[in-house]
Each structure stands twice: as C-alpha cells, then as structure tokens.
Amino acid sequence: MSLLEVRDITMRFGGLTAVDGVTFDLRQGEILAVIGPNGAGKTTLFNAITGVYEPTQGSVKFRGSQVRRNPDLKLALRAAAVGILGAISTFVALNAQPIWTAAIDANYLLDKPFPWSKAFMDGWTTARAVPLVWGIIPAVVGGIIGAATVLALWQHLRRTPDLIARAGLARTFQNIRLFTDLSLIENVLVGMDSRLQCGYWTNLLRLPAFARERSRSTAEAMELLAFVELADRAHAAAGSLPYGHRRRLEIARALASKPAVLLLDEPAAGMNPSEVTSLMQLIRRVRDRGVTVILIEHHMKLVMGISDRIVVLQYGRKIGEGTPQEIQADRRCIEAYLGAEDEL
Length: 344
Hints:
By secondary structure, this protein is an alpha/beta fold. The protein folds into three domains: 1-67 and 160-168 and 259-344, P-loop containing nucleotide triphosphate hydrolases (Rossmann fold), CATH 3.40.50; 73-157, no CATH class; 179-258, no CATH class. It is 50% helix and 17% strand. It has helices at 42-49, 73-107, 116-128, 132-157, 161-167, 184-191, 200-204, 208-227, 243-255, 273-288, 300-306, 324-328, 331-338; strands at 4-13, 16-26, 31-35, 57-62, 65-66, 169-171, 261-265, 292-296, 309-314, 317-322. Strands 6-7-8-3-9-10 form a six-stranded mixed β-sheet, with helices on both faces. Strands 2-1-4-5 form a four-stranded antiparallel β-sheet, covered by helices on one side. α10 links the parallel β7 and β8. The protein is elongated and about 95 Å long. 29% of the residues are buried. The model has no long low-confidence stretch (mean pLDDT 84).
C-alpha cells in the first residue's frame, strides 16, 4: 500500500485551473521528485496536499485514509454554546418589549424611585409565563444556529496544515520562512510544538513536567541541529546564517515534528554547486532516517542524482512519471523544458 495517495487533485482559482487532475502515489522509503517549468502548478499541488488549500476536486490519502478533523466533544460544546446564545437572543428579540412593559406597569409609581431589582424579578416571572410557542421558536432557531455552527466549523477546520503536520506530513517552503530573530535551537523547538504534551498552566507555572519536557526537547533539537551540521551555531540568531545554512535549518525544523513524509519545496534554490552536493547527501540521510521524501526542484543534477521516481507537470497537468532514466528518454518531458524542435 502507498504511503501517500494523491488522486485527481484539481485546484481552481476563479477561471484559472492551477492543477488539473494530478494523480500519483508515494511509496514508503522513496525519494519522489516533482518537476516542471515555472507555473506548472508544483507549489500549488504541495499546498493542496498539506492543507494550505482545500482541493477543488480529488482527494489526498495518507496511510490509506484521508486526514480529516472530525467533530468532537469540544466542537459540540462550542456549537451548543452558540446555539444557546442564539436561542436567548431570539427569545429576547421576540419577547423583550411586552415583558419589560409588564414589569414597568407593575412597579412604576409617580414621584418614587423605580425599584430596578424588583422590576427585573417581575420581568423574569412574566417571561416564564410567556406562551409555549414563543419559547419553542427561539429553541428551534437556536438549534438551527448550533447545527450551522457545527457544519461551518467542521468545514473550516477539518483539513488544516496543523492537522496535516500532526498526522505526519511536514514541509519546507520555496521562500524560506524562519523566525530570524530566534536562535537556531528555538526555531527547531517551534517545529516540535505539535507533539509537545505540557499545557498552558504547566508551562506558565513551570511545573516539573515542563522542566522534563523542556530538557528532552532541547536535547532532541540539538541532535537535529547536529544532523544538519549546524550544532556549533545552535544559539546564534537564525537571521545571521548564510542562505544555504538557512535551508538546512528549515529542514531541521520540519524534522522536529517527527514526520513520516517530508515535502521539500525547491530546497536547492539559490545554492552553489558545492552546497547542492552537500544537500543531496543530506536528503539521502533524511531518507535513511526513515523519512520518505517528496521534493519540488529545478536543479536537474539533484533530481536525477537522488530521485527514485519523478513526476513531471506542465500547465497543471501530469505529463510523465517514471524513473530518472525513463524521464530522460521521454520526448514529451524534454519538450516541456526545452521546447519542440520547430519552436527552437
């Protein structure tokens, strides 16, 4: 069974179709490259896989099932609270004027202070005497509001990047997104957030569980920095790193969530030949660590040197898939990059 199954993914933005019916499988322990000319829809495809976008059409299955956020008790309680508030608001809107009028009529005396507390109590008594039908209507409206809230929250929250990351898919970005004012080790610790156990009060009060988790996570962060060969600069600001080292730090931060699949978006962009060679070695070591890799890349030396399989996109559509040797011999894939002979 495939680790990741991408089926008929389509992304439309108004009249523009950025990704059109792309299908492929990612197998356990392989390195899969997604290549194509600029504007082919590669990053949009990554965004659809990782929950940044909800696909217009198609599905993404991880370990045989779709990663979805199902309604739970917390969601139900939120919806119930909204429904109760909706019922109360509807009841007040329908009955406030006659109830308050009755309370004033019962308590107002000329030239005497108005007894507000007694008026409120009389208003409550009057409200309890409201005909049943005027109580049922708010209850129905509140129920509808609560149900609509459940649906809206579920639709909005069911497939989000944080949920995807917790499931075991982590990614880096085409444009590096580090916290430049934080140190290297702090950036890696941020990547562990999805699997840390201590809650708000434990962290606020610095309880023993916080100290134990902090010690353990710091040790893991240092191990990851050593893995990407940045341990000697662990306490330096991320903004002080040269470009190639920033790419390595972003990989370390992604690995901090202990993913099963790592998605790399143009990891070799802006690197010199020496850095590319070093990056190729790092990606192989990531795979040897037990992490399956899927990457977007334009650097053909890297793609052909480390990929087990390659998927080729053009204008949002898949036009080829196979081993590096098969892609190199595929005329259609070559033309996608170089153009047909009659165009040269």
